[in-house]
Design goal:
Rossmann fold, binds magnesium ion, binds P1-(5'-adenosyl)-P5-(5'-guanosyl) pentaphosphate, about 15% strand, alpha/beta, 7 strands, two-stranded antiparallel ribbon, about 50% helix
Length: about 220
């Protein structure tokens, strides 16, 4: 059976990463693919790729489609070669119309993946600024916290590995707002390419667990 491909579409801070991690923990065989996490790992490792994307990411601009498609494709090929996969949750990919075309083509050619569908998490710009200004992440695993609503047990330390939590370079208010605008400008191109009937919208503001329950039903 082919693996399902579910895109989590939504502005920065809409909860894509938080919800993707929750669902992949709950549903065995579902895997989380975040191009943002992959780029941040490259930056942390000091690789050539990491060096080439570091400034772009810190300023909230988009990495080129070619580089992003390559990073995405090699990660998915690696995951598919490791064993059976029920589904992929794509978080932060695709981000442009050309990436969406690449993804649709990639799924068809692979022979192992269904055509992609999307869930769009809807949030306001103000909610996003509040959330991201208070976000902390574990740069090693990508695990996400909110200083007030989902704080770590020990302030500034990850619950799992005990290591330092950091604030992302692109989580400064002015960069958050420009990332939000960039998402808004790209969103229709992505949805048109997928087809409106392949996109479900879910309110992204409210209790994280209530949103997770709604997403579980759609899965
Ligand atoms: P990323 O890493 O893909 P963004 O901008 O798409 O970054 P981001 O900021 O990671 O998205 P998110 O994953 O949607 O946001 O949100 P999250 O981390 O889960 O939650 C945000 C905060 O809100 C957290 O503190 C969380 O605890 C809290 N929260 C979550 N859910 C709830 C809730 O229900 N209620 C409440 N109260 N709080 C909640 O991309 C980064 C950069 O990498 C490059 C670009 O430069 C990009 O800017 N990049 C790409 N470039 C080109 N093409 C691509 N495909 C690229 N992918 C990445
Ligand atoms: Mg994220």
């Amino acid at each position: 059976m082919k693996a399902r491909v579910l895109i989590f579409l939504g502005a920065p801070g809409s909860g894509k990463g938080t919800q993707a991690k929750k669902l992949c923990e709950k549903f065995p065989g579902w895997l989380h693919v975040s191009t943002g996490d992959l780029f941040r790992k490259e930056i942390a490792s000091g690789s050539e790729l990491g060096k080439s994307v570091q400034e772009i990411i810190a300023s909230g601009k988009l990495v080129s489609d070619d580089t992003t498609n390559q990073v995405f494709a090699s990660q998915v090929e690696r995951l598919l070669s490791q064993g059976p996969v029920k589904g992929l949750i794509l978080d932060g990919y695709p981000r442009t119309r050309p990436q969406t075309q690449f993804l649709i083509d990639f799924c068809r050619k692979s022979g192992k993946l269904e055509d992609p569908k999307a869930i769009e998490l809807l949030v306001s710009e103000e909610a996003v600024v509040e959330r991201l200004s208070n976000r902390l992440i574990n740069p090693r695993s990508g695990r996400v916290y909110h200083k007030l609503f989902s704080p770590p047990r020990v302030p500034g330390k990850d619950d799992e590995d005990g290591g330092e939590l950091i604030q992302r370079d692109d989580d400064k208010p002015e960069v958050i707002r420009s990332r939000f605008k960039l998402y808004t400008s790209q969103r229709d191109g992505i949805v048109n390419e997928l087809g409106n009937d392949r996109v479900n919208q879910v309110p992204g503001e409210g209790e994280t667990s209530a949103i997770a329950a709604q997403l579980s039903n759609l899965l």
